[in-house]
Design brief:
Length: 310
């Protein structure tokens, strides 16, 4: 198998792009796609500071590597959710990546900010782990970006992630989410601009990019993700992609062309949470602060119970 660009031995075949690429041209393609997405959607400039949300996985670490290589001012943020031994391993991988390259990694502990790990919060709030995780991560990522003076918050969502999200929204015909699904969500008050530079790159491309560049990442999935709807949707799309190459990229690109037809919901009036000062659409405290209060009440109840039994 020969590289479509230079004729040398290829290491990957990208059926959706009609390409066979050697290591050099796979790297060039990935970096060109990232730079192209940044420019096309006006995500950020070289003068702006970017905070990259890293998890220890291939996509976020590769994104951070690419942005610094392209000359952008990018620091990392790791949120320690306290998920069994998984969080410890993913934190170690993220810290090792930053130390090897002399990059700045901010580490935020959920237990330190909320008073409970995600495992504990799931039991206390009796909610679905993925839903609670999304709530606390969105809050902590935005707050860290805002307080750190960053102009953009970048996440490693790739083509597979975005196509699966789109399929889920279409199956529910959730027009509000369809109207908001876009590679850039603009800033609003204390809500920092959110961007997805890997939007047109597949998981296979990102895994190959990491292998070629010697980027060591955590291969295991979050234990709470087992049975998640997003994984089922990705499986469906993978079956379609195997039979009809370019299904995912065509699905996403065609959606972006007609996205304006979907009407966003009525604008939500945001106000500052009286507890933390961050924006919220809820009456009174934001959801993160309400969860924090619930954790505190639980801790007090446990202390009282122990005191009574003593």
């Amino acid at each position: 198998m020969r590289c479509s660009v230079c004729g040398r031995e290829a290491v990957i075949r990208l059926r959706h792009a009609g390409l066979r690429l050697c290591p050099e041209h796979l790297v060039a393609r990935v970096e060109k796609e990232v730079e192209g997405a940044i420019r096309r959607f006006r995500m950020f400039s070289h003068e702006e500071r970017v905070l990259v949300a890293v998890s220890g996985g291939k996509d976020s670490l590769a994104l951070w590597h690419i942005l610094t290589k392209l000359g952008y001012q990018a620091d990392g943020l790791y949120i320690d959710l306290g998920i069994g031994g998984y969080s410890e391993r993913s934190r170690e991988v993220s810290q090792a990546f930053a130390e090897e390259r002399g990059l700045t990694l901010h580490v935020v502990s959920l237990a330190g900010q909320l008073g409970a790990t995600l495992d504990e919060l799931t039991r206390i709030a009796r909610g679905k782990p993925c839903s609670l995780c999304g709530t606390v991560k969105r809050y902590l990522m935005n707050r860290a970006a805002w307080e750190g003076g960053y102009q953009a918050l970048a996440t490693g969502h790739n083509l597979d992630d975005e196509a699966a999200t789109l399929l889920g929204n279409v199956l529910r015909w959730d027009e509000g989410y369809l109207a908001r699904q876009y590679p850039v969500l603009p800033e609003e008050g204390k809500l920092v601009r959110k961007v997805k530079p890997l939007v047109f790159l597949s998981e296979r491309e990102m895994a190959a990019y990491c292998l070629i560049n010697g980027i060591h990442y955590l291969h295991e999935d979050c234990p709470h993700a087992q049975g998640a709807r997003s994984i089922v949707l990705k499986g469906v799309l993978n079956q379609l992609e195997d039979r009809y190459p370019s299904t995912k990229i065509s699905f996403l690109r065609q959606f972006l062309k007609v996205r304006d037809r979907f009407q966003p919901p009525e604008p939500v009036l945001l106000h500052e949470c009286p507890s933390c000062g961050m924006p919220t659409a809820a009456e009174g405290a934001c959801r993160f602060c309400r969860l924090k209060e619930r954790v505190a009440r639980h801790a007090l109840r446990v202390t009282d119970d122990h005191g009574t039994s003593a």
